[in-house]
Design goal:
The structure is a single chain. The chain folds into two domains: 164 residues, TIM Barrel; 31 residues, no CATH class. It is α/β, with parallel strands linked by helices. Helix content is 32%, strand content 20%. Strands 7-6-5-4-3-2-1-8-9-10 form a ten-stranded mixed beta sheet. The two termini are 15 Å apart.
Length: 270
Amino acid sequence: MSNRSLIIQCTNSCPCICPGCYNFFSTGQISSEDIDIFIAEYNKRFGLSKVTLSGGDPLLREDLTVIINKICDRKIPITIDTVGTVFLNEIDHKLLLSLKKISYLGLPIDGIKDQTIQQFRNNSTFEQCMKIVKRSQEIVPAICINTVVHSKNLNEILDIATIVNNNPSIFKWQLFQFMPIGPGGFANKSLYSISNTEFENLECALKGISFRDSLKVECKSIENRKNKYLILGCDGVLWLPQMGPNRKIIGNVFENDIFDRLKCLNNEDL
């Protein structure tokens, strides 16, 4: 269990309705107190190098500051993945202070053309992305750019590389080969999937670029992401992503034997 990253989906609210989304949207929202109780016991039993808060968009959760502060009190590093539209408006002071405590903020750049971006992530433009990055660097300690590499943006990845390389506020760039998981991702796999060879060729091309020393570039294929993520859903359901429209449900955080189930998990493939 210790080799899996713990991702907590804080909310199902999101300004985007993306056709490639992997999320299983559900009703209900686990309380900040129950999240804290779970994290405390999970960390005690398995250890946590970090917790990633995601969604939906976690910045839309009203009591996100409570969640961040509780995790920080436990001395566990936090990262947040967000589309970042909150940064286009005035930010609540309490949230502002909490965001300064996180390790880094993950933001998406999916292309350099609006048409390319909107084929994968609705209600987003390149100009918006750049404004969000600029605003974020004034607030959070560090920025990581997340790019899902798919068939619609494959020919713009090297252009994104130039943008990322020229922005010293970005310390990491993660490139994820599109995975057809979840109801949205699987339903649209024919639109976005790229072959392993295409992703490997891209990785080779990126290795030929002289990136600045302060930038870490990570290419994450489908193969090297298998069985690496444990997700706590907004409804309290613990699950593992699988290739296909369904997920592997481990159980619910409110079940008495949930940690015994987690302990028994093996490293089977997705």
